[in-house]
Amino acid sequence: KPKKKWQIAVIGKLQAMGISYGELAERIGNSYNNVNQVMCKDNMPSIRKQICDYLGLDLERLLKDEQEGID
Fold first, then answer.
1. At a CB cut-off of 8 Å and minimum separation 6, what does 9 contact?
2. Nearest Cα to 20, choosing from 2, 4, 35?
C-alpha cells in the first residue's frame, strides 16, 4: 500500500486514466519491474521523476508538502 504522498497521487492519476503499471512502464520507456519497484520501495528517484513528469504531477511540490506535513 502506498505511503508517500507522491505514490498516492500517482495511483489516483493512473486509476483516473485507466492505465496499469505495465502500460505506464511502456509509455515512459521503462520496465514493469522498475515501475513496480519504485512504487513499492521508492528507491529509484530518476524513475519516480519520469513517472510524475509523464503524469503531469509536480513531484517537488508533493515531496515538499510531505516534508512539511501538508495534506
1. 52, 55, 57, 62
2. 35
Segment holding 54, helix H or strand E: helix 45-55
Residues 6+ apart with CB under 8 A from 55: 9, 10, 13, 14, 17
The model's pTM: 0.86
DSSP 71: -
| Residue-by-residue pLDDT tens, the chain, 71 positions | 558 889 999 999 999 999 999 999 999 999 999 999 999 988 899 999 999 999 999 999 988 888 887 76
- Sequence-distant (6+) residues with CB within 8 A of 19 are 27
Cell of 15: 486509476
